[in-house]
Design goal:
It contains 11 helices and 16 strands. The strands form 2 sheets. A 10-stranded mixed beta sheet has the order 1-2-3-10-4-9-8-7-6-5. Strands 11, 12, 13, 14, 15 and 16 form a 6-stranded antiparallel beta sheet that branches. The protein is elongated, with a radius of gyration of 26 Å.
Length: about 375
């Protein structure tokens, strides 16, 4: 697991990344304990069935792409010649920040990667991410390499790479669309292969989304072979307490009268809610509260407290994580995490904790409240 501070600060959402060989209770517990807003999870593509396991633990996965990795043995592959010998490769530095930023924005505007599959993220967020990622290779670290390809004074392509001992990784490459069709992308690959050899590397790896077929064909022509693939899954949990618009908290005692009224009103008179012996027979320590009663209390808080009166529900997800016993004083929390000013949609994290501060209910409410949105100051 790794926390991505750069992405979190840019998106104003806590982003954590995970690689999982298996999905199970321990893995889900690790994800939840990190309290991410967005968990970006990679699972081997040969274990596609594992994604369904996420649903069993009350998490709704967004399958956003398949990432493929190619590798090349630099000691055996035959190096091609540079086709566009009239263009000049220059090592990038801090002086090139503005030029590189402009090139990346031109090249990656509208490019679809795994971020595009997450409705929380806008095209502006995604493009800003490419720029931030690309500029990070201009740092003063010999393991981070940025090559810019110039046509006179104009940068028309770039190659960002990283060295890990004897392994060289091509991380992010791009060619200005005005220069497409001239074999420049192939030249980037050939040049970086040669650079890797000069640096004493014996292997080079590259990766991309499965649908990016053109670059994969170029890699194969230069001796690269597919060696692994991963499915990328986003989990929008909205669980951090670092990034939010507004928050409401209250304590509620789950009394016998409350459970009785709810059961009689709905007709749900399941004995586990009304008879201690029946509850014990089912493996509980005593009578448990209806899970949907927690939903009702969340709905009341959303409609009356935050965002408040006038709120219209569009959807509510719900995960019941632990049983809640009669007589428990719960803490109910509503965290407004995201507001779309154009549509008026509000995303709120809805949580319930028991009297031992254990999370027993987690969900996300999608609601509309025009007056709440209009009352926010710019930047909130």
């Amino acid at each position: 697991m790794s926390y991505s501070k750069v992405e979190s600060d840019r998106l104003l959402l806590s982003v954590h990344r995970f690689r999982l060989d298996e999905v199970g209770r321990d893995a889900l517990r690790a994800i939840r304990s990190a309290r991410p807003d967005i968990a970006i999870v990679r699972i081997p593509s040969g274990k596609i069935d594992q994604i369904a396991e996420l649903e069993l633990y009350g998490v709704s996965p967004l399958v956003t792409d398949t990432l493929v990795y190619y590798g090349c043995d630099l000691t055996e592959c035959e190096m091609r010649k540079i086709r566009n010998a009239d263009l000049e490769f220059r090592l990038g530095g801090e002086r090139d920040r503005e030029r590189l930023s402009h090139v990346i924005r031109e090249i990656f505007a509208g490019y679809r990667n795994h971020y595009a599959g997450n409705p929380l993220l806008s095209e502006t967020d995604i493009l800003d991410g490419f720029v931030e990622w690309g500029l990070s290779f201009l740092q003063e670290d010999e393991d981070y390499i940025c090559w810019l390809l110039y046509d006179g004074d104009r940068p028309v392509a770039f190659a960002n790479c990283r060295q890990y001992d004897e392994c060289f990784e091509g991380v992010l490459f791009g060619v200005d669309s005005e220069y497409s069709g001239r074999g420049i992308y192939g030249d980037l690959m050939t040049f970086t292969q040669q650079d890797a050899v000069r640096r004493g590397c014996s292997r080079m790896i590259v990766s991309t989304q499965i649908q990016n077929m053109a670059v994969q064909k170029a890699w194969v022509r230069r001796g690269f072979r597919l060696y692994e693939s991963w499915n990328t899954v986003h989990l929008n949990l909205l669980m951090s307490e670092e990034y939010y618009v507004a928050v409401h908290k209250e304590k509620i005692l789950l009394s016998e009268e409350m459970v009785s009224q709810y059961g009689h009103l709905t007709g749900d008179e399941n004995p586990v809610h009304f008879d201690d012996e029946a509850a014990v027979e089912q493996g509980f320590a005593g009578r448990i509260v209806h899970g949907a009663l927690l939903n009702g209390l969340v709905s009341r808080a959303v409609g009356m407290k935050l965002p408040g009166k006038g709120t219209i529900y569009l959807s509510q997800s719900a995960s019941y994580l632990k049983p809640v016993y009669l007589g428990t004083e719960i803490t109910l929390e509503i965290w407004v995490k995201h507001v779309d000013r154009d549509t008026g949609r509000i995303l709120a994290s809805t949580r319930v904790y028991d009297n031992e501060s254990r999370l027993v209910f987690a969900g996300i409410a999608v609601v509309l409240n025009k007056s709440f949105v209009e009352g926010l100051r710019p930047g909130e």
